[in-house]
Amino acid sequence: MTFETTTHKDVRNPGALSRMGSRIGLANWQGLSTLLWKEVRRFLKVPLQTVLAPMMTTILFLAIFTLAFGSGERYVGEVSYANFLAPGLIMMAVIQNSFANTSSSILISKIQGNIVDILMPPLSAAELTLAFVLSGLARGLTVALVVGLVMWILIDFSVHSWAAIIFYLVGAGLMLSLLGMIAGIVSEKFDHMAAMTNFIIMPLSFLSGTFYSIDRLTGVWYQISHLNPFFYMIDGFRYGFIGTSDSSILVGAVSIAVLDILLYIAVWALIKSGYRLKA
């Protein structure tokens, strides 16, 4: 009798059957991978805008600054200015594109009214968060790979630590994807998104030591630079190439890991509560 009653309830509730069929263990891997692939395809369908345009912008920054300061004549420490600048530009591209991917996806879905199509499937808040974050990371890594290959042709690159390069690349991509999700959730129109990008993301990325060594700063500006999480991303990533850094690599790694965890919890809580997602 118990078996018949349970079956009858499941038939009346197709969502229950869907959850039973798609879940393996404790997670809905099928649904998670489907949403992830949908988000990855979203930016791959417009590569001129999402991949090649950031690559061109980054190369232009490299050309302008190396020509202005003379890459063959100016050195930062024991490395040429071009070798110092290139890793920072790659990381800046990752920062901007990881943020743009998740923030634009969520905000556009809210404005078009199809966010319900993402919230209705049997995906938990943790699974939704993970799918969006990994898609933002995928775009950031794709841009980093394309930009890195072009710079490798233009500049005599050397690698000091692959572990540092991979860790900071992934850590930065995750952090900016999570920040992008928060921005997409709290924003109600494109003006709000533009304000966050222009007044928070861009200043933090440009004032993070991308174009200069913060050892040149003094007093309060030197202290403020060490409060900027983007500085640790760029400094650690640059260390992976040139073998020197302006701060402790361990402190930077721990700071990024802790911030990624805290941001993931914050995004999970926002999605769980339905804040500005549910009508």
TrEMBL record:
Domain ABC transmembrane type-2: 45-274
PROSITE patterns: ABC_TM2 (PS51012)
Keyword Ubl conjugation on entry: no
Keywords tagged on the record: Cell membrane, Membrane, Transmembrane, Transmembrane helix, Transport
Transmembrane regions listed in the UniProt entry: 51-72, 84-108, 128-155, 161-186, 193-214, 249-271
Localization in the cell: Cell inner membrane; Membrane
Domain of life: Bacteria
Keyword Cell membrane: yes
Membrane protein topology class: Multi-pass membrane protein
Family: Belongs to the ABC-2 integral membrane protein family.
Protein name: Transport permease protein
The species this protein was found in: Sneathiella sedimenti
Origin organism lineage: Bacteria, Pseudomonadati, Pseudomonadota, Alphaproteobacteria, Sneathiellales
